[in-house]
Amino acid sequence: MAGKAPQKAAKKAAPKRSTVKKAPSRKAAAKAAPRKPTAKKAPARAAAPKATASKRKSPAKAKEPRLLSGGNPQIAKGYGDAPVQAYIEAMPGWKRDVGLRLDALIERAVPGVSKAVKWNSPFYGVEGQGWFLGIHCFAKYIKVAFFRGMSLKPVPPGESKSQDTRYLDIRENVPLDEGQFIAWVKQASQLPGERM
């Protein structure tokens, strides 16, 4: 038994070591490798202009609005009549004429109406009361959102996930009941609007 005790002591004293050598890290290999001479680079300011610089449009030309999916114009956020008119002008096909007519009816029903374009949609409201109506183009129709539509008499036909909002969908070749639309606009303008 005397021969067994020294073997255990030897095993405890010398921990096992792996005989596999690790490869040097990339950083270490890069440091150890001889450096190649590099050519001097010209300063960034002296670089020639890129070929794409000639493709820029002149500032005098107005950028054509892009149509998003479904045909809704992409118009920058803005307040007042100008961005709303830019949106209407960018509406595709038959929707442009309907947009012009809706805008005229809203202005007639609510003199001095506030206008804005937000989230690529025109909004109409009353100063200090919020927004009461919004318009959005889709592929086959124009959606008019009455933000307090459940309070209108009669209630507009289109349902919404929102408790208060109701929609009116205007389709090509389907006449708009302008009298009813004006009545809804007048009622909506007298209700508290949405703060957006």
From TrEMBL:
It holds the Pfam family DUF1801. It comes from Myxococcus fulvus (strain ATCC BAA-855 / HW-1). Signal peptide: none annotated. It comes from the Bacteria. This is YdhG-like domain-containing protein. Residues 1-75 are annotated as: Disordered. Residues 95-188 form the YdhG-like domain. Residues 9-43 have a biased composition (Basic residues).
